């Protein structure tokens, strides 16, 4: 597709369950970012991939959160033992960024996670 | 720590007027700044960006001003239209060289017809 695609768009789960959120970046974009956005707040950085490797995971709140990008394209954010405080919109962004240059991030529409 | 903030949570303007949205940032090491627009239920959308070696950049109906002395960023929207109603976020790179952006809290722009 032309833009960043995220699935599911909405996910409702129960406390303690495991969830996976998927991001399909713009074709050819090497950099991929996950952000979390709570209601009324700006997006908060979670993790950044350059290619297949997590280059910066300093924003992951705890070890219940994990993300992978095994082939350098699609990424999956995994949340174990979900808690009500995990409820938020999870945004994925990609960028053609290479060689250390900073540029625009292209965002998907997000996956809204609700933990009951 | 690193933080980016906006001065006003809500800005209400009349259609056709100019809008100015302000942003203060704290990290003098930031070398890239960007404004995003976010409509309800959608992801942030790029509006305009500016690098730290510039103090002004113009786009179509939008202008970004950067004042590094006081660490202030502003977004000016000319002839504001109803379609401009959204939440606007400024973002900076901070001290990181990973390309990640640090976002402010956002300003809601309401355009009255």
**Beta fraction of chain B:** over 45%
CATH topology of chain B: Immunoglobulin-like
Total domains of chain B: 1
CATH class division of chain A: Mainly Beta
In helices, the fraction of residues of chain B equals under 10%
Overall domain count of chain A: 1
Characteristic terms for this protein:
heterodimer; A: 116 residues; mainly beta; Immunoglobulin-like; seven-stranded mixed β-sheet; four-stranded antiparallel β-sheet; 11 strands; 0% helix; B: 113 residues; six-stranded mixed β-sheet; five-stranded antiparallel β-sheet; globular
Task: Reconstruct the topology from this structure.
The complex is a heterodimer of chains A (116) and B (113).
Chain A: E1 5-7, E2 10-13, E3 19-24, E4 31-37, E5 44-50, E6 53-56, E7 65-68, E8 75-79, E9 88-95, E10 106-107, E11 111-115
Parallel strand pairs in A: 2-11
Antiparallel strand pairs in A: 1-3, 3-8, 4-5, 4-9, 5-6, 7-8, 9-10, 9-11
Chain B: E1 4-6, E2 10-14, E3 19-25, E4 32-38, E5 45-51, E6 56-58, E7 62-67, E8 72-77, E9 86-92, E10 102-103, E11 107-112
Parallel strand pairs in B: 2-11
Antiparallel strand pairs in B: 1-3, 3-8, 4-5, 4-9, 6-7, 7-8, 9-10, 9-11
